[in-house]
Design a protein that fits this description.
Layout lengths: L13 E7 L6 H12 L6 E8 L5 H7 L3 E5 L5 H11 L4 E4 L11 H7 L5 E6 L7 H19 L11 E4 H6 L10 H11 L4 E6 L14 H17 L2 H25 L4 H41 L10
Parallel strand pairs: 1-2, 1-4, 2-3, 5-7
Antiparallel strand pairs: 4-6, 5-6
Helix pairs in contact: 5-8, 7-8, 9-10
């Protein structure tokens, strides 16, 4: 059941986090556009650009236009940059976008309004405009449908880079969030499988400025693994139960067929036993997941209390 918020929750301010890697062609334009729309929200805000080891003038340009810049000495991945930004944010509402100019800022005020009654609001893209457009559309659609089934919830856009959420939500799952492109899909699935309310607002999607960092094979593989791993972590029965039922059904059909012919196949017994073992393993995994989630949540809180606060432009 969704964690519906009866009493509106008010953001004390907005921290815009822009993870960037070699985005000198677009970063100034992105900052100016989002600053214009954030000023309409009647809330204090800050703009944090996390320069993920760029080799160009991304950090220099971002500082010139007034953003707070945190630099990684080496490239850690877009997920690592997002985590650095979350740690450094001083306001409880975290707005994220990409530094390549693909996400327009015109829906930001509406997303901020929706956040009063949600734990996370995601800008859902209506059309794929990135590189490898046809491949990305087909693969993402298949994986998204698979994720909807596993998560038990409709997900219009699993890995949109434009979203706003409360900082404490991200910190709750911080220990699970990866350093790569699957950071956004991971936090989406973590939220949905744990009963948090996630809303989606339709947005346009532009062509990026500059060169894409998307790798069609590696990133698609990691994307698929993220969906399976995250859902298995929190809701093992959604993975193990269908697998066990399929094996039990196959075993039952072949067993009946064998009995009818007067010969019981060894393979029928093996498949049936495998189905039973998978079923009971899923039950044990489900119980373990419930206990582990609470323990790791507690440990994550303890780690975050000891984490350094980023107050300088250079990451320590």
């Amino acid at each position: 059941m969704d964690n519906i918020i009866d009493n509106p929750r008010t953001a004390d301010g907005i921290s815009l986090i822009i993870p960037s890697y070699n985005e000198e062609l677009s970063i100034a334009e992105v900052i100016a556009e989002y600053q214009e729309h954030l000023e309409k929200c009647d809330l204090p805000f800050e703009i944090i650009v996390v320069d993920d080891g760029s080799k160009d003038r991304t950090a220099e340009i971002a500082m010139k236009v007034g953003a707070r810049v945190i630099r990684h000495r080496r490239n850690r991945g877009v997920g690592g940059a997002r985590k650095t930004g979350v740690r450094a944010a001083k306001w409880n509402a975290i707005l994220m976008t990409d530094g390549d100019g693909t996400y327009p800022a015109d829906q930001v005020p509406e997303m901020v309004k929706h956040l009063q009654y949600s734990d996370m609001v995601i800008g859902a893209r209506g059309e794929e405009r990135g590189t490898f457009r046809l491949l990305r559309w087909a693969v993402k659609r298949c994986i998204r449908k698979f994720a909807c089934y596993l998560a038990g919830s409709e997900i219009p856009d699993l890995n949109s880079g434009l979203r706003i959420f409360y900082k404490d939500l991200a910190l709750r799952f911080f220990y699970l969030l990866p350093d790569g492109h699957s950071w956004v899909s991971t936090i989406t699935l973590c939220s949905l499988t744990n009963g948090f309310r996630v809303d989606f607002i339709p947005i346009e999607y532009r062509r990026r400025i500059g060169k894409s960092k998307f790798h069609p094979v590696r990133d698609t593989y990691q994307y698929f693994l993220t969906v399976v791993r995250t859902v298995t972590y929190f809701s093992p029965l959604r993975v193990f139960m269908p697998a066990s039922l399929v094996m039990l059904a196959i075993g039952a059909v072949t067993l009946v067929h064998g009995v009818a012919r007067g010969d019981i196949y060894e393979s029928s017994m093996l498949v049936t036993m495998a189905g039973l073992f998978t079923f009971f393993f899923g039950l044990l995994a489900d119980q373990n997941a419930r206990i582990r989630t609470e323990l790791e949540h507690y440990r994550s809180e303890q780690r975050e209390r000891q984490s350094p606060v980023y107050t300088l432009e250079e990451e320590r």
